[in-house]
Amino acid sequence: MKTVILGGGITGLVLGYKLGDVLILEREEKVGGLLSSYSIDVFFIEKYYHHFFATDKNLLLLLKELGLKDKILWFWAKTGYFVDGKIYPLNTPIEILKFPPLSFLDTLRLAFFTLRSKFENREKLDKILAKDFVLKTCGKRVFEKFFLPLFKSKFGENWEKISAAWLVSRVALRSNRGLKGEKLGYLKGGFQVFLDSLCKEIKKRGGEIKTLSEVEKIVIEEEKVKGVLAKIEGKEEFIEAERVISTLPPKALKKVLRERAKDFNLEIPFQGACCLILSLKVPLLKDIYWLNIDAKVPFGAIIEHTNLVPAKEYQGQNLVYFASYFQKENDILATLSEQKLFEIFLDGAKKIFPDFKKENINWWKIARTVEAGPIFVTNYKEKVLPKKTKIEGLYLCGMFSKENYPERSLEGAVRAATSLIEDL
Fold first, then answer.
1. Share of the chain above pLDDT 90, in %
2. With contact defined as beta carbons under 8 Å apart, do 373 and 270 qualify?
3. Closest to 276 measured CA to CA, from 310, 315, 314, 302
4. Which helix (H) or strand (E) holds 250?
5. What is the pLDDT of residues 18-56, one digit of tens each?
6. Which of 2, 297, 367, 413 registers the highest number of CB atoms within 10 A of its CB?
7. Which among 387, 394, 400, 284 is positioned nearest to 345, based on CA atoms?
C-alpha cells in the first residue's frame, strides 16, 4: 500500500520511520518543522528552543531505538522571574519564599497548587477557565502577580479563554524540580542528530523524503483517497496513493482539502511564534536558563541555552533565545522585516539589561511561524481531531491529536504517531 505523509516535522518523520516504505512531502527546504536547526560553523542549534523531560518515556525509548542513548544528556536548569526591574531566581523554597510580589501565605498557596496539579481531573478542568481556577485556588494576588503576566506573554489577547486543563498540565510537566533546579534533557550535537537518524532510517527502510514540495490538494473520489496533487521543486504532479496521512496544521489542511474541508472540524485556534537567537561573546544571565518576563518588552521569556548546555559545545559562544507568541497573522512579529524586529527586540533587551552592548553580539537569527501550536481554550477537547476520518485512506495526526492535549510536546508528537501506527 503506497502511503504519502504530508509534512516532514517530527510527527511526519516518526510516522515515516515506523511505516518504512512511504513518501514524505515537506514544503520547506529542510525537514524538522519546529525542531529544525541552523547550521553554524561546526555545530547545529535549534531555531526554536527545545529540551525534553525525564517523564518523556516514548521519546526516550525512540532515541534509544535509534541508537542515540549515548547522546542523551541531563542537566539541572534554573529558572527566574523578571519583575519590577529585577531578576529573582525561583528554584529553592527559600528563593520562592523571598519572591517580593508574593506574601508568605501566597507562596504556600502556590506551592500547594503546584503539588496538586499532578492529580487534578483535567477532563473536568477543560471546561473551566484558567483564570477562574487560579483565583479560586490561589487567590487574587497570586493570579495577578505570578500567573497573569505568564498568561499574557503566552497567549496574548486570548489569555482569558485558556482552560485550567492546560494550566495544570503545564505546571505538572514543569514541576520535576529539586534544589538544583529543573531536570531537563538534551542531545549531544543537538536535535539535528535526532532528525538525521530518523531520515537515515526512513531511507534505509525504503522510504523517500521530498523537500520543497507544496501539497495543493488531497484527491478524493467516491469517499476514497486517490492521491495528492503537489508542486515539487516548482513542477506540478499527481502522486497516486492508497493512504494519505496529514500532519499539517488545521489551516493548511483546510487549504488542501478544498471543498471537502467543510466535512471536518478544522476551527482549532492556533497561534504563531517568533524567536530571536543571539550568539554573545559573554553570558547574559548569570546561571538562569529560563527567565519569565513581566515588563513592557516584545518578548515573554529569555532562554539562555548555554546555561543548560555548556558554551564549550558551541565554540565558546553564549546562545540566548528571546521568545514571543502572536495571535494574528498581521501582527508586527509576523510582518516586519527581520532587521526591524531585531532592533525592536534589542531595545527590549536593553530595558532589562541596561549595560547590554550591541558589540557583544557575534551573530543573530530570527525564526517565525504563524502556526506554532494550538491555543488551548476551554472545551478544547471537543475540537481534538480523530486520527481516522470517514474518508477511506485519509488519516490525521499532529499537534491537534489527543496525545498533544492539553499541552503539546515532543513526547506528544511521538505518542501520536505511535498510536496511529497501532491503529492502522
1. 95
2. yes
3. 302
4. helix 250-257
5. 999 999 999 999 999 999 999 999 999 999 999 999 999
6. 413
7. 284
Q: Which amino acid is at 13?
A: L
63, 87, 118, 267 from 70: Cα distances, Å: 9, 36, 30, 42
The pTM (predicted TM-score) of the whole model is 0.96
Spatial separation of the C-alpha atoms in residues 156 and 300, rounded to whole Å: 10
76: left (phi over 0), alpha (psi -120 to 50) or beta: beta
Residue with cell 476551527: 267
Indicate the SS3 state at residue 395.
Answer: strand
One-letter amino acid at 144 equals E
pLDDT at 180 (0 to 100):
77
Digit-coded pLDDT (tens) for 302-354: 999 999 999 999 999 999 999 999 999 999 999 999 999 999 999 999 999 99
Beta strands 181-187 and 177-178 are antiparallel
Q: Which of 358, 302, 311, 370 is nearest to 49 (CA)?
A: 302
- Can you read off the three cell numbers belonging to residue 235? 513542477
Q: What is the distance between the alpha carbons of residues 293 and 299, in angstroms, rounded to a whole number?
A: 8
In the numeric block, which cell numbers belong to residue 157?
A: 489577547
The enclosing H or E element of 412 equals helix 410-423
pLDDT of residue 173: 87
List, in sequence order, every residue forming a beta bridge with 126; answer none if it has no partner. none
Rg (CA), the chain: 22
Are β-strands 394-396 and 243-246 bridged in parallel, bridged antiparallel, or unpaired? parallel
Q: What class does CATH assign to 182-188+270-374?
A: alpha beta
Nearest of 317, 323, 285 to residue 304 by alpha carbon: 285
User: Is 400 in contact with 381 (CB distance < 8 Å)?
Assistant: no
Mean pLDDT along residues 103-108: 96
Looking at domain 3-50+191-267+383-423, its CATH class is alpha beta
